[in-house]
Amino acid sequence: MLRFPEQGRTKEDVLATMRAARDHDIQWQQGKVFGLIYHIDEAVDALLQEAFTMFFAENGLNPTAFPSLRKFETEVVAMTASLLGGGSATSPGVVTGNMTSGGTESLLCAVKTARDWARVHRPEATQPEILLPRSAHPAFEKGAQYFGLKTVFVPVRDDLRADVGAMIRAVTPNTILMVGSAPAYPHGVVDPIRELAAAAQELGLLFHVDACVGGFMLPFVRKLGYPVPDFDFSVPGVTSMSADLHKYGYAAKGASVVLYRTPELRRYQMFVSTDWSGGIYPSPTLAGTRPAGPIAAAWAVLNYLGEDGYLEISEAVMKTVKHIQAGVNAIPGLKVLGDPEMSVFAIAADPSTGSGLDIYEVADELGERGWHLDRQHFPKSLHMTVNYAHVAVADEFLHDLAEAVRVVRRPSLRKTAGKFVIWLANVLTRILPERWVSAAMGKVSALLGGSGGGLPERMAPMYGLIGSLPNRGDLKELVLDLLDSMTRYSDSE
Question: Does the predicted model carry a pTM greater than 0.90?
């Protein structure tokens, strides 16, 4: 058991311990992480760090105490709105919003806003529902769980985009909010926003565009001449949007923006307490105290780079994306899924080649070479978010990817054993009582190579198993067990 320190340690000792712990992290500085980190260069890092540190003690809770933060936030929101169609011919009103801690908080704000708006404008929705393509971000589901709403998921089309007809058919008197993504995170494709928004507007629903990934990339990709469908406030019927500054805005974490077509709609996001003995307590977003560093750093980087800087960065990124995608498609047994519009896409095994390649094994082999790619399912694939940090390492990645595929094609005892475990688990789930199977899920991490303190080093057997479990409730319990173990202190650390 770890006890609270009785005595302080020297600055040098504390920092040395922290550096040693960091040595076990993914080395993102080498450009080997496709996601999580968005990086340009040391000059931008220095700017972000200085701006962040300048305001590291301030608190965004009270704009009257720190008018500088009010200036930074309102200007960041205004600049983002102008980038995303605010003030266009179809959106002449004042698009307004707030900065948040990240995409999840922005989406939670949009869900809370929709719930409170519906209480006034759609009182017939006695059990309010959010209508989502299956590819929509889980934060909407999280928000629905937090705020007592129901989520209704609609399968996507064969091209991985939202199915407009199916979405319309899924609308009920309880539907209050419809969602589209620009792009959807798993496969990087933009949903048919114009058609979805028109349907929502005709049906009297709110419509949110989740542009957390694409909000600071798609506008510049379009300016560079790449085909980008309409997706922002220039589209009638779009009532709110979200865009993450700490993704392709290359700002410091955590920083996102949630936007609303009208100030009247944003009021449903806000919270005010007037009867507290501590005074009047207003809060525009979910957080109370808000770190000032991300607000200041976001303002700094937008002004430092400007449109010309973002265009230059986006052009380099898109050239790298096209190079990587061509390289992936040239490797026998692999393909890029769908037809993504920007720098987010997924790599999958190509069944047309008859190779039977296990894409999760490919990810494990890439991991052995220092690369970090998230595994996805439905369909099985590897996630790629390419940013400026990958411009210099694209050829190295393609070389290692081809080598990983070559290694995976070779038979091995370890892969045979993993496939046997998955086969056996699937047999047992069909013949054993459900309660026995559920009890066995608690042991699966150790069975697949884990130590009981988290995930196994190689993930292919784990993902192969969880992707085929017939009872998704068992899978949820398994993930909860793993999450619990990974977020609990262990004396072995």
Answer: no
